[in-house]
Design a protein that fits this description.
Layout: H1 2-54, H2 59-64, H3 74-89, E1 93-101, E2 107-112, H4 132-137, E3 145-146, E4 151-153, E5 156-166, E6 172-181, H5 183-263, H6 270-301, E7 309-312, H7 313-331, E8 334-339, E9 345-348, H8 350-367, E10 373-381, E11 384-390, H9 414-417, H10 425-435, E12 439-444, E13 452-459
Parallel strand pairs: 8-10
Antiparallel strand pairs: 1-2, 1-6, 3-5, 4-5, 5-6, 7-9, 10-11, 11-13, 12-13
Helix pairs in contact: 1-5, 5-6, 6-10, 7-8, 8-10
The protein binds adenosine-5'-triphosphate (ATP) and magnesium ion (MG).
Length: about 450
């Protein structure tokens, strides 16, 4: 139950996380898109307005306004009138003013359309609050530009645009600036943000609820599958236990009786002797199968006793070759032991290593044609001793090279199928090799001949 809840929680968290990220990303881009659209619109309106307005200003008049005293003169009034005309004829414009560079290198006001004496910027007043963008571009500005950010004061939110003003000779004599009311844009942006948030909340909350129930259903199904798998694993273990413990005893009894009868076979009719041999063959096969199952379950459960010691690899391989020779002779296949590197000492369990090699040799015998040669080679490779069994059999295709080491896996091609065995030998070899920090695998033969080359690498020890 506890597992089920944590599984459900995990699935739900994944779905909710995915939903939040997706909805969040979509909302972000939606909001950004709408805001950018509105900004682009107001920017282009402002840019075209200021560009046209700059043409109205008379450069000679503007240039002749030098100090605050000039504010009483007709020239100042004319320019101010022009600026007010610009302000009043364009919708939502708050202020229009001109600036130029003072002798001290600071930005100074020239004419301001403002009439309120408290607000007006006078001729030659320093523009203290000039933005970073204005300061940066004041000397180089070639065309109209708009501030990146809005600014807000007690009268509202504004966006400022600037453009250079030139005289008839193309000489730049100042900068014209205008502020446009951006309240509506600001409000619209906030509204969009709110709508985006609502969409985000409206989509994620139901999604999360659905995710919760969906996760619950999925977790229940997964839990059932896991339970079923555990059940079948338990059943398989029980079966293995039954095979090993309940079958071996009667099997031994049969083998004992067959052994006794074999002792008196001379007095038995020929057909009975033949049947006895068949029974003996079948019981041996069954015994091997039980041994394989027992070995594998021992390694899997960690109860196999592994005692690595320093072994002479040549002696070990030679011993195995000698033991195997008899059955190879009977089958009409030769076995050749080739020592490529001498005096290799490995650190491994003697019995396990012998059984791995015997398994590989018995497989090669099964799958190699009569009158062929199977080689067992021994060489050094970095810090390992490598035993190789090269045969002249059908070989193993690339995609099956890993699978054949799985339990009960046998290649289902016709010529291989007729061979005996249950597909446990290589599974045992891999587990045993790994238990001794070794590695096992199959490759094409190093000499590129037809057949396969099974290898086992075991760590060297001086
Ligand atoms: N030398 C080989 N040449 C060709 N195919 C092989 C060779 N060795 C193994 N195989 C393939 O790999 C399969 C698995 O081998 P494995 O030794 O695990 O099982 P098995 O020999 O069929 O049965 P068991 O070893 O349990 O008696 C074999 O059935 C065979 O299809
Ligand atoms: Mg085998």
């Amino acid at each position: 139950m506890k597992n089920n809840i944590s599984l459900q929680r995990q699935i739900c968290l994944y779905i909710i996380g995915f939903t939040l990220i997706t909805a969040g990303t979509l909302s972000y881009f939606f909001n950004k898109g709408v805001t950018r659209g509105m900004r682009n619109e107001i920017n282009s309106r402002l840019l075209s307005s200021i560009a046209i307005s700059a043409l109205i200003i008379d450069s000679n008049l503007h240039d002749s306004i030098k100090s605050r005293i000039d504010e009483h003169g007709g020239r100042y009034k004319q320019i101010k009138k022009d600026l007010q005309l610009i302000r009043d004829s364009i919708k939502n414009i708050n202020d229009v003013y001109t600036m130029r560079l003072g002798k001290d290198g600071r930005i100074r006001f020239v004419v301001d359309a403002e009439e309120n004496p408290d607000e007006i910027a006078h001729v030659d007043d320093i523009y203290k609050d000039a933005s970073k963008m204005l300061k940066k571009n004041f000397f180089t500005m070639k065309g109209p530009m708009v501030e990146k950010d809005f600014y807000t004061d007690k009268w509202g939110t504004w966006l400022t645009a600037y453009t250079p003003i030139f005289d008839s000779d193309g000489k730049r004599y100042g900068i014209l600036a205008m502020d446009i009311a951006a309240n509506s844009v600001k409000q619209e942006t906030t509204r969009t943000l709110l709508i985006t948030f609502l969409i985000f909340a409206c989509t994620t909350i139901p999604f999360c609820i659905v995710a919760w129930f969906f996760g619950k259903g999925l977790a229940a199904k997964l839990k059932k599958t896991i339970d079923d798998l555990n059940e079948s694993e338990k059943a398989r273990d029980a079966l293995s236990h039954m095979i090993v413990h309940d079958l071996r005893n009667p099997l031994m009894a049969i083998q004992g009786v067959v052994g006794l009868l074999q002792m008196v076979r001379n007095s038995l009719p020929e057909n009975i002797v033949k049947t006895l041999q068949q029974i003996q063959g079948a019981t041996e096969e069954m015994d091997n199968l039980i041994s394989s199952i027992l070995d594998i379950s021992k390694i899997e459960s960690g109860t196999m006793s592994i005692s690595p010691v320093i072994l002479n690899a040549t002696d070990l391989a030679y011993g195995v070759t000698e033991d195997t020779k008899v059955i190879y002779d009977v089958a009409g296949v030769s076995i050749k032991f080739i020592i490529k590197d001498k005096n290799l000492n490995i650190f491994a369990d003697k019995e396990l290593t012998r059984r791995i090699l015997k398994n590989l040799l018995s497989n090669s015998l099964k799958f190699t044609p009569e009158e062929s040669v199977v080689e067992l080679t021994l060489e050094k490779q970095k810090d390992n001793a490598v035993f190789r069994v090269n045969d002249e059999g059908p070989g193993i295709s690339l995609e099956l090279r890993n699978k054949i080491f799985n339990k009960f896996y046998q290649i289902s091609s016709r010529e291989v199928k007729k061979q005996s065995g249950v597909g446990l030998g290589l599974a045992f070899c891999r587990m045993a090799a790994e238990a001794m920090n070794g590695e096992i695998g199959v490759e094409d033969r190093p000499d590129s001949k037809q057949g396969s080359s099974f290898y086992i690498k075991l760590p060297l020890r001086k």
